[in-house]
Design a protein that fits this description.
Length: 375
């Protein structure tokens, strides 16, 4: 069974789908690995690293020749349509796909009879945790956000006693306590900040406290379907803002990570609240990829609003390309272990993890929002 590892083509994408340290594990599954030359370079994983060790890969320059020869194609982002068109009928594609955001891709998968697994569709259930790339990547984004905040803050994070007096610890408020938010709280605390967390799912209170943060209680319970948050009503939004304004204004760094599945990111911080922050305050808006959590956020850019610098970087995991690639590659390996047996493809369409992640199969494409397959 041959797998192809593509070099990513998007400007801000530095990750690579397979790291050299996993080659022996893939060999154990009976898989032969072919890597596009230069695939790991932007994650500082040189071609040579893929040629060493007991199970070296083969390097191939041309992406079309690479995929034409492969049974399984692995990538981080959806490959270009030409590359998909060069795949063998019945071959498997695994990457983040976001089918409804890539014009032409569903048709190309259908016409090419490609079997496609979308990493963003891995079910959020305990058994699938080791395949959950959204979580592995969100954890790294969450880690990175306080570092970005600290770098842009004209003050320090920890309390510091000097010969001429003491400097106070910074206050960091994290809004949205999913995988990224909890890591952000933990990192901010390790940097010496005093931390507070806010979410609309009540179970996050204990989770915030377990990483040393105070929970900001707005009295709202907006737990929705599947344990995710639902959208807040207008009344709930007003109630939350009333409690939160004071906390936002006392914070040195605010990190926002809130998402509601399938929707534009919720607006958590208003322009008036940003304008009322302390001079030199910093907001790191981690929801840039889904529109941002703050009024005035410009996704992909850093802007100043009143006294506050608002950062909204795209694709934060890619800034930590080596570790992000390592975790993503492990997620892929765990998916491959489910669909490959004795060196051959073995799809169990009764398996809820396989079925949940599968978005195209044998000439049919699943509506990304639909739960059943095929439709
Ligand atoms: P996410 O990225 O979808 O959202 C981030 C956070 O924003 C969530 O905690 C959400 O409650 C919060 N949020 C949404 N609207 C908000 C608002 N208006 N105000 C404040 N906060 C708001 O979340 P995620 O990190 O992908 O995880 C969401 C849930 O899924 C969590 O309960 C997490 O523990 C769970 N999860 C389970 C598994 C698993 O069992 N395999 C894996 C990953 C995540």
């Amino acid at each position: 069974l041959k797998i192809a590892v593509l070099k990513e083509t998007k400007d801000d994408e530095r990750r690579v789908a397979i790291v050299p340290s996993l080659l022996p594990k893939l060999a154990k599954l009976g898989i032969e690995v072919q890597v596009q030359s230069g695939a790991g370079l932007r994650a500082r994983l040189p071609d040579d690293a893929y040629l060493q060790g007991p199970s070296p890969a083969t390097l191939i320059d041309d992406p079309k020749a690479l995929v034409a020869d492969a049974d399984i194609v692995l990538a981080i982002q959806a490959p270009g349509l030409d590359t998909v068109a060069a795949m063998k009928p019945g071959a498997v594609l695994v990457s983040f796909l976001y089918l409804n955001k890539v014009p032409g891709l569903p048709e190309r998968l259908r016409d090419g009879k490609i079997t496609a697994f979308a990493m963003e569709a891995v079910p959020r259930i305990s058994r699938a945790q080791s395949l959950d790339a959204l979580s592995s990547q969100a954890a790294l984004s969450g880690y990175y956000a306080p570092l970005l905040g600290a770098l842009h803050l004209p003050r320090i994070m920890p309390m510091m006693t000097t010969a001429v007096g003491s400097l106070r610890a910074a206050k960091v408020l994290v809004m949205g306590l999913g995988v990224a938010g909890l890591q952000a709280l933990a990192t901010a605390r390790r940097l010496g900040a005093v931390t507070e967390g806010y979410d609309v799912r009540p179970e996050t209170r204990e989770q915030a406290q377990s990483v040393g943060a105070k929970f900001v209680d707005t009295g709202i319970d907006a737990t929705g379907e599947g344990g995710y948050a639902r959208e807040l009503t207008v009344e709930e939004q007003a109630k939350a803002a009333e409690v939160l304004t004071q906390h936002i204004q006392q914070a040195d760094v605010v990190i926002t990570t809130a998402n509601v599945p399938g929707r534009q990111a919720p607006r958590l911080v208003s322009r008036a609240q940003i304008e009322g922050m302390k001079p030199g305050a910093v907001i790191v808006d981690l929801a840039a990829d889904s529109g941002g959590n703050c009024e005035g956020t410009v996704p992909g850019q850093t802007v100043e609003i009143g006294p506050t610098v608002v950062l909204a970087p795209f694709n934060v995991p890619s800034l930590l390309a080596q570790h992000a690639s390592e975790l993503y590659a492990k997620n892929l390996l765990n998916l491959l272990a489910l669909i490959v047996q004795d060196g051959a493809l073995a799809l169990d369409l009764e398996d809820e993890v396989v079925l949940g992640t599968l978005v195209a199969y044998d000439g049919t494409v699943r509506d990304p929002d639909a739960r059943s397959f095929p439709v």
